[in-house]
């Protein structure tokens, strides 16, 4: 059976993550002690989002009408144009001379990842673009201690308070989101949680008076890995303290107010189209799903979602759309009087995606974030090979890597990694980039003894750069000599039997390799000779009618850790297990991971801890606000070998992983590519209703399963 390469390209990283899934320090020597975890955020390096705005009264708009509001350097998204209050202005330096009465200025509050994690910033933008923005980081006191990498999202300013989502508090429950809504008084920095304990809330919106907040939430039922898309409900509560919480809409998300009793939101309609709806709350009497009137606003035939409103504007709303026959997400207005769409961004930048619109308080401007690439936006900063994130320990450094499955050579001088165009090696400073395999590989790891040998698993049919080539799920373990002068003898195939041999990992002495194979009909773990391969004999490490996968060897040679669905046969659910290399001592690592998807485990250099990806913390934002919103999210965690000291390292609304743990690398800050590597904005949006079923059916054949 076969699938075409475009289908596999779409599903590759998603299924890997579920199933398998500049400043440079002195380079003369590595840092003494400590260790480094490398990981990938799926698609993050290609996003390069900035926030733009268009006037709403220019119909049709032209490219010259559009303004970029953010710096063109960072990843900037999810904006909010605020009415400036004295409290907000007090955050600006005295030298700015800005007053709330200056109507020529735009006051933008937004999410930025300039520090490696989603934080909030406040910019004052001059209308003539002749002066630089005044920029102020927000909530800096919350990015400390155990919260250094926590995610902040969807900010809203109401009076003297900032309302937003944060993931800095553990939900206390496995497979439950940490996202909750908070309110911080700007002057005093006093913060209170508005979301009840044990509940997750997303996408807050505050009514024009500031009295009420609406959120999308899974409520008491919580999120699960099998939750359907767009399955949140809408709740309303008092902004001052979170009390009087009540569900007002079943099956709705992304609520936005126009007045104290009217909300717009999106949901998937019975006819299959995502549409915007209006909910009218009763002005007197009890408020519940039974007393709220719900009306469909946008018609079938066009997916319309993530609505934006402005106070007391009953003339139009802004929405993101996916029109039939188009794979591009655009922002449009919807005329509430004429019941018709008014196109905007397609007329300005037709081939770029545009996300999560928002309206200025006076309705004169619509904002959104978009990825245009370096040529269109004038971005001059290079993409980073390594982006450093802050951690709670001086002994542990954490880097986001621009490529999948990054691994560090034993000498500490080179990385190997994977992209859609093949397997590559590169020096730690970003120089010396070379392709060592012209097709996608599943995992990379260096031989700990034999210099320059990289193990991966692949097949020539996974070369997506060859037009018309189809990919099978026949995968073999390969040893690649990255320094071989003759490319024809650089690659050695180590497996011959079975259809799906993947994810090799050598023993610390370099003599053996553990890998997974489906040669028995189900995926189990095997061990073979590192040089002779399968020809030197096989030892079957695990045996059962379940899937065991992604095994790695502890540096002290005592354990092999792997992911398995042996307690959830036939499902996506995966737990972590350890076993001795002789097959004895099998046990589960941590009971509190049961019921989720935990994958990609790897030991720390001292063999005492394990880093891995997991859905333990659920999702951190409404998925439709991101590209490919139907992709489940996982984060990076660590745990002791005995299952204690469970620690979250990353907070992100995108997919993080796979992580790899090495002795400390030389970099102490971001490391930029000398030349841009890979395309900007190279990501897809979600598939339409007519193609999703086909894609999901075909993706079941991905070699990563």
Automatic annotation (TrEMBL):
Coiled coil spans: none
Keyword Glycosyltransferase: no
Position of the signal peptide: 1-25
Stored Gene3D superfamilies: TolB, C-terminal domain (2.120.10.30)
Family annotation (Pfam families): PD40
Keyword annotations of the record: Signal
Protein name (record): Uncharacterized protein
Species: Brassica carinata (Ethiopian mustard)
Top-level taxonomy: Eukaryota, Viridiplantae, Streptophyta, Embryophyta, Tracheophyta
